[in-house]
Specification:
Layout (H helix, E strand, L loop, with lengths): L37 H6 L25 E4 L9 E4 L4 E5 L4 E6 L2 E2 L7 E10 L7 H6 L1 H4 L17 E7 L2 E10 L8 E3 L3 E4 H10 L5 E5 L8
């Protein structure tokens, strides 16, 4: 079976990355889809027991291919690796026997997207978010008041969980995190970070330990079923 290839290089744009915020939503008229199966309605229902509300995802705004599901995925990466295919808008958690758990993602805009190999240095539940100095310099009125950071909560851009990506022991300022902007899954909208539905980042956060290998690809390389 074909091996997945990848193009890797050291990050050169970390100053833009930690923003994790979106540009304006692009709207378009889409044909009606069949009702969402009960299985996925339950998967993306409101999450109880959290310190802040986690609302049900609005699945009417998301292409069904981006719902969390197990798929065939053939790769030379070891089991437990996170592989992010930015072109296809999928994140894979590599499993056994040529299978992977696949999540739909939103990715960074052209020129700000992460590419390379990193590690999950640490994970956070309901993390704080702080705009970068570059963001503050570009939009002081918007980000200046947040220079000291934003407290956790339902409006925090990082959502209920975040995985912090380091490369060679250095913080890349890129995160894998949640979002309440359901419409952004499958799109290239953020300032560089990799975003999942809140239910999906909670699920992923619980499956991967600190030190997990993360491979972020830009070339279209996904040999999946």
């Amino acid at each position: 079976m074909p091996h997945m290839t990848r193009r890797l290089f050291v990050l050169s744009l970390p100053a833009f990355a930690a923003g994790c915020v979106s540009s304006a939503q692009t709207t378009s008229i889409k044909p009606e889809r069949p009702p969402v199966p009960a299985y996925y309605q339950q998967m993306y229902a409101a999450v109880p027991g959290e310190p802040y509300p986690v609302a049900a995802a609005d699945l009417s705004k998301i292409d069904p291919q981006f719902y969390r599901q197990e798929v065939d995925y053939f790769t030379t990466e070891p089991i437990g690796t996170i592989v992010v295919d930015t072109q296809a808008r999928f994140l894979y958690l590599v499993g056994q026997n040529g299978r992977a758990l696949r999540y739909g993602i939103g990715v960074g805009k052209a020129g700000l997207a992460f590419e390379g190999v990193a590690r999950v240095q640490y994970k956070r539940e309901w993390p704080r978010w702080t705009p970068t100095q570059d963001m503050i310099a570009r939009e002081p009125e918007r980000y200046g008041p947040l220079a000291g950071g934003m407290e956790p909560g339902p409006t925090n851009p990082l959502g209920p969980r975040a995985l912090y990506l380091f490369q060679n022991g250095v913080d890349t300022l890129y995160r894998i995190h949640g979002t309440t902007e359901d419409w952004s899954i499958g799109q290239a909208v953020s300032s560089g970070c990799i975003r999942l539905l809140n239910q999906d980042i909670i699920d992923l956060h619980g499956r991967v330990p600190n030190g997990t290998r993360v491979v972020v690809l830009q070339a279209p390389v996904s040999p999946v079923a």
